[in-house]
From TrEMBL, chains A, B:
Molecular function terms from GO: hydrolase activity
All residue ranges annotated as the Nudix hydrolase domain in the record: 11-147
UniProt keyword list: Hydrolase
InterPro entries reported in the protein's UniProt record: Nudix_hydrolase, NUDIX_hydrolase-like_dom_sf, NUDIX_hydrolase_CS, NUDIX_hydrolase_dom, WH-like_DNA-bd_sf, WH_DNA-bd_sf, WHD_NrtR
Protein name per the record: NUDIX hydrolase
Superkingdom, natural source: Bacteria
Family the UniProt entry places it in: Belongs to the Nudix hydrolase family.
Length: 235, 235
DNA sequence: CCAAAAGTGTTCAATGTACACCCATGA
DNA sequence: TCATGGGTGTACATTGAACACTTTTGG
């Protein structure tokens, strides 16, 4: 809430950074781009960019997402994550970055857009492990995004955002197992999700794409909260 | 994550706004200040102000809090809430505001500091009801802060941040009842909080300040998460 | 004595957990 | 036929909900 002060307000650059998560090959993965320019030239970073004049924060995040993935109407979840503004987090100038969290189904290979020299999915384990060297404070931002996703699928129906439009109970369970890194009992999981009203809507179809007995296909239901929550084993 | 672009980045003002909550007279209340200058001169608003050059966001929030309350070392909880940056949210210029949530015990009467013309506590019911007319988009920010507080005391030990250093189980229960606006069973509540390991640490003392049989005094324990969570009646 | 708040015990229902078991497909 | 994943039934332990009851103060 600004109030006029004797000195002029200091000007800041404002950017949005995106933590775009998906589940690929049984691993929680994040979208990264290779920086084409200094600082951190050649390093991997989260996608993002400056907020434009007259542009809202969420609109800026959606625009950057479309630019980086090359897709326009994505079936994704987008929410604000947190804001990072330590002095010195960008060596060039004072920049405040509003981070957004995006949960997406396994997407086609990313098409680098804008001024990025490359784009790829990497498992968050690699990105945050010893080998990972993300530019700026992006490791910290990614950590926060992963933690948010891990805790939020406990008590919301958000895990379905990682699944394609139609999915099976087993596929949804593998999302939980990948994000949490644990094994869940398939039978109790099935009862839990099918027993929660308005969580899953059967489409009538079935599939055998996972092998074994044909599984029913579902769409996301209208329920947004999962009550009682899915319990995460201690791991 | 900034990248150089052909056009210069647009400069933004960056502020912090504070949602300072406490429980007074059985009502969840927020700290507001009366604006001494336009725009919204004379209107009530959340405390806040510009982030200074070279100052971190959380540091700016802590500074503003100290300035507005006149107290320095407060036994409070402070966490980032969300960031609001719609174009036009401030009529003078483009401003992005990082909101912080503060939970405090019932404090001495606020001392207006800085350029505020007054400061007071008001129940959030009044502030957000028909009569409430907060400046800027502060009603929206306050709503988000209240919702965060309401949901967070479910699964964390944060409710104790509303209590003085030493408190009774009954006082803690009244915090939950005030924040949620429901009645809880005193007996089951007692069992729940005293049965959660490291949530409450008995100090050995007792008090009769609430009348009736003397109650044990406790301090906050080291546990930060409440598992299983406190269940909020549907209300 | 009575009112008020603290604290304990007990019972019942709901829910999670573990696991035996059957089903329907592809190879 | 067998392996694989889908799906149901059931017994047991844990937890929350409701509430009767005792304890210890102040007025």
């Amino acid at each position: 809430m600004p109030r006029s002060e004797t000195s002029l307000f200091p000007p800041f650059g404002v950017t949005v950074d995106l933590v775009v998560l998906t589940v690929r090959e049984h691993a929680l993965s994040a979208l990264t781009i290779r920086r084409g320019e200094p600082p951190f030239q050649g390093a991997w970073a989260l996608p993002g960019g400056f907020v434009r004049e007259g542009e809202g924060l969420e609109a800026a995040a959606a625009r950057e997402l479309a630019e980086e993935t090359g897709l326009d109407r994505l079936p994704v979840h987008l929410e604000q994550l947190a804001t990072f503004g330590d002095p010195g987090r960008d060596p060039r100038m004072r920049v405040v970055s509003v981070a957004y969290l995006v949960l997406a189904p396994d997407l086609p290979a990313p098409r680098p857009g804008g001024d990025a020299a490359g784009a790829r999915w990497s498992s968050v384990g690699e990105l945050l492990g010893d080998g990972g060297r993300l530019a700026f404070d992006h490791a910290r931002i990614l950590e926060d995004g992963v933690e948010r996703a891990r805790s939020k699928i406990e008590y919301s129906s958000l895990a379905a955002a990682f699944c394609p439009e139609e999915f099976t109970v087993g596929e949804l369970r593998r999302v939980y197992e990948s994000v949490w890194g644990v094994a869940l009992d398939p039978r109790n999981f099935h009862r839990k999700v099918t027993g929660t009203p308005d969580f899953l809507v059967p489409t009538g179809g079935t599939t055998t794409r996972q092998g074994g007995r044909p599984a029913q296909l579902f769409r996301r239901g209208s329920a947004e909260k999962l009550n009682p929550p899915m319990l995460r084993p201690e791991a």
